[in-house]
Amino acid sequence: KSTDYIGRAWFHPLYNADAVGHSTVIAGHAIPHKMVEQFRASSNDGNKKELHYDSLARANDLVRQTPHATINILRRSQLTKAGDYEKSLGHRGPKPNSVYVRNAVRLSDSLLGNE
Q1: What per-residue confidence (pLDDT) applies to 73?
Q2: Which CA distances in Å does 68 have to 9, 13, 44, 113?
Q3: Which of 35, 50, 52, 88 is the most buried (most CB within 10 A)?
């Protein structure tokens, strides 16, 4: 099947994770807002300033919004190499799921004025 050879990521000017209607990770889509909220609550990053759910959800959607509808196609070999590299970092590497929280918080801060 094609996913043995490629990975896909969907982007759209009006991307809305709630419209996808998922409560778990679906390859190629942004992770559900509630999952980002849970990852943030369980992280130990020391940066727990208040971030309302609506702002978090909006920022999580912004991660997948682009000027034009786009499908990013990635070679499976690229994804495997990236995963292997991340594993090789051991404790120096990013915590699991931290990138989703970091992206949402940064977008919320800079684009939505939640500084």
Answers
A1: 93
A2: 14, 6, 36, 24
A3: 35
3-state SS assignment for residue 103: helix
Whether residue 75 contacts residue 5, with contact meaning beta carbons closer than 8 Å, is answered with: yes
Query: Does pLDDT of 24 surpass 60?
Result: yes
Distance of CA 111 to the CA centre of its chain: 16
| pLDDT tens for each residue of 45-76 | 555 667 788 888 898 899 899 999 999 999 99
Phi-psi region at 113: left, alpha or beta (left = phi > 0; alpha = psi -120 to 50): left
Report DSSP letters for 42-75, one per residue. Answer: H---S------HHHHHHHHHHTT--SS-EEEEEE
